[in-house]
Design brief:
With 643 residues, the protein is of the alpha+beta class. The chain is 31% helix and 25% strand. Bound molecules: 2-acetamido-2-deoxy-beta-D-glucopyranose (6 copies). The site of one 2-acetamido-2-deoxy-beta-D-glucopyranose has 3 residues, from loops. Pfam families: DUF4803. InterPro entries: DUF4803. Keywords: Signal.
Length: 643
Amino acid sequence: MKTTKCILCALFCTFLMHSNVQSSRHEGSTDPDYARSTYIQLERNLWEKYIDKNTTLTRNERLYKIFNQHFMFIQQHVDQNYNDEDFKILSRYYEWNNLESDVKSIHSLFKDNFVNRLTKDLETNDFRSNGFDERANLDLAETVISDPLWPINATLNKIEINIYQQGLYYKAISEASITLCTAQRSPQQVLYQLYNAITMTELKGYAMMQFSYMLLKTYGRGNYTQESLLMRKNFERRATKAQELMQKVLERADRSLWRCDPNTHKEGSSYLQITRLLQGYIENEVDLNRDGGCWETCSHYQLTESHGCFKDLYCAKQPKCSGKLLFCTFVDSDMWVCPAAPNSDRRYEYIEYENGRTLGEKKYCTRGTTKVDSWWRYLFWHCSYCFCICDEQGKKSDRFFNLRPALSNISDNMIVTGLKFTKQNRIIHLQIQEGQLMERGRVNATSTRWVPVDDYTLLDKGVRDGRDFHTLAWDRREVDLDDLTAPSGHVVTGVKFRIVGRHLNLEMRVSEINFSNGRIIEPEKSFWISNDNTEQSTQNGNRRTEITLKSPDVPVRSKAKSLPISQPNTYIKFTNTDMGKDAAQTTVPYLDAQDVVNSPPVPLEGVGVFLKGLDGYGGFISPRIKTFDYGPYVQAAQTPKDS
Ligand SMILES: *[C@@H]1O[C@H](CO)[C@@H](O)[C@H](O)[C@H]1NC(C)=O
Ligand SMILES: *[C@@H]1O[C@H](CO)[C@@H](O)[C@H](O)[C@H]1NC(C)=O
Ligand SMILES: *[C@@H]1O[C@H](CO)[C@@H](O)[C@H](O)[C@H]1NC(C)=O
Ligand SMILES: *[C@@H]1O[C@H](CO)[C@@H](O)[C@H](O)[C@H]1NC(C)=O
Ligand SMILES: *[C@@H]1O[C@H](CO)[C@@H](O)[C@H](O)[C@H]1NC(C)=O
Ligand SMILES: *[C@@H]1O[C@H](CO)[C@@H](O)[C@H](O)[C@H]1NC(C)=O
C-alpha cells in the first residue's frame, strides 16, 4: 500500500514538474472563481469597516450589515442545493468515499442551519429593533467552529489532501472520457463542473466560519481577529493552489463531444438516410447499349444507361432505372429475384443465383420470387443479366444538402450551443441550437432553442441547385470530414456547407466574446472559418485523404456501437452497401440525427463532422462539437471596489 502510494506520488510529482506550462490567461474569471473572490472581498470589508474598527454603529446595526451582506451574496452566487451528479465522476475513488459524507454535511449545515438562520433573523428583525436571536446565533457560531459533528475546518483540510494532493482531478480525466456517451458532457466540462462543485463546497464552509467569527466578536465573545486572518490566509493559499492545478487539468482534458449510438435505432430521430443515390440494379446486356447487341461482357459497361426493354422480358417487370448505370458485373446467368415492396427505398430484398450465390439477406419472400434467365443468341452471343449500379434521380431519391447558412441571432447575443442533422423537404440540413450567452461563459439554459431550418423546397421559385442546395450524384458525392476550431476567445455563431471542387465542405462562423460580461464583441466583425485543403493540396502533409468503407453493410444492422473512425482533413464518398451483404441496395454512410449538445449548454469553440462506425458497416456521418475552453479563466477575479 505504502509503496503504491509512493509510486503514484512520484509519478504525479514528475507530471507536475513537466507540465509547468503556463497557458495564456484571458481577461475574466469563471463563476466559482468569481464567487470566491467576491466573498473574500465582502468578508474582509466587513471586518475592516464594521467589526474590527471602532464605529459609531450600534451592535444591531452591525449585525444587520453582516446578515444582510451574507444573504445578498448567497442569493446572487450560491446554489444552496447539494447535487450528487456533480461528484458522480469521483464515486469510484477511495479518496472520495473518504470525503463524501463530510462534504455532504457542509452542504446541509449551510442550507438547513446557516441560510435558515439568516433568513429568519432578517425576516423577523429590523436593525433598529432589538430582536436578533442572540441565543440561536451564538449556538450556530459554536456549532460551525467547534462542533465535532460538523468538522468544517477539518473537511477543508481533507479536501486539500484528498483532492489536490492525491491527483484526483487527473484520475477523473480518464474517467470522464469513458462516461462521455452517458454524461453528454465533454471531459473538460465534467472536470469544470467538478471544480465548480468543490470550490463552492469550500466556499460554503469558509463563509460559515467567517460569519461565525464575526458573530462571536460582535457579541463580545472574544477577539477572533487573528483567527479570521489565519483562516483567510489559508483559504487564499488553497484557492491559488486549486487554480494552478485546475489550469493544468483543464488544458489536458478533451473538449470534444459527440453522440454514441442509441440502444435502438430509429429512422428520423436517431439517423437519416440519403436514399437511392447508388443502388444495385439488374439489367440485361441487350438493353445496356444502343444497338441491342450482346457482344461484350458485363464489365464492359462502366458508365451507360438503359436503352430499351428487349421483348418486355424482366425489364418490363421491374421499375426502370432511368438514370446512369454504372460498374456492371456478371455474377451468374440465372437467378431468382425477390422484389422489395413498392413503397420501399430498396428495389430487391435479395437475389439468389443458380450457382448458389446470394446477394442480400435471404429470407421469406413475401411478394414471391421471379425467375430471371439469361439467354443465348445464335449460339455465339450470351445475353447476360448484369448486376449494375443505378444512379437515378427522382421522387424516391433524397440526395440534397442545404447550402444556406444556419446562424444564431448575434444581434440578440445568441450563440450556437448544439448541432444535429435533420431532413426537411427531402433536404439534409445541419441544424443549430442557439442560446443566450451570459456572464462568465454561462448560457441561459431556458433561452436555448433549435433554430428552425430554412423551410424551402427544391421546387420553390428562385431556389437553385449549386447555390441553395447541393445535389449528390455518382460523380459528386464527397463529404469533407473536418474539425474546425475558433481562435481563442471566440465562439461559434453559425455553420454552413459549401462546395469545394465536388466536395461538401463545412464552414463555421465565429464571433469574439467578452467572457466577463457575456456579450458578443462587435457582432458585425464575425467571420467564417473552414479547412480549405483538397486532395490536390501540395503543402506538406496537408493533402486531404479519402476514407473508404470496406464491404459496408447497413449501419443499423451492427450489434455493437459505432466508434469514431475518421481523422480530420479527410473525406468520404457516399456509396452503395456491399453487393454480397445487401445487394447494394442502401446508400451509406447514414447521417446521425441525434442532437449533440453539452448538458448544461455551453458556448462552442469548434464544430466538426466525422465518421463513426465499425469495420464492415457503412457507419454514420456525425456532428461533433468542441466545448468552450474555461481553462484560461480559472483565476482570481478582479473584484469591483467595495460598496
Ligand atoms: C471608540 O471611539 C470613541 C469615540 O469615537 C471613544 O470614546 C472610545 O473610547 C473608543 N473605543 C475604543 C475601544 O477604542
Ligand atoms: C484549521 O486547520 C488549520 C490547519 O490547516 C489550522 O492551522 C487551524 O488552526 C485550524 N483552525 C481551527 C479553527 O481549528
Ligand atoms: C484583537 O486582536 C488584534 C490582534 O491580535 C489586536 O490588534 C486588537 O487590539 C484586539 N482587539 C481587541 C478589542 O482586543
Ligand atoms: C434577432 O433578435 C432581435 C432582437 O431580439 C430581433 O429583433 C430579430 O427579429 C431577431 N432576428 C431573427 C432573425 O430572429
Ligand atoms: C433566460 O432566458 C429566458 C427565455 O428567453 C428569459 O425569459 C430570461 O429572462 C433569461 N434570463 C436571464 C437571466 O437573462
Ligand atoms: C469586458 O467587459 C468588462 C465588464 O463589462 C469590461 O470591464 C471590459 O473592459 C470588457 N473587456 C473588453 C475587452 O471589452
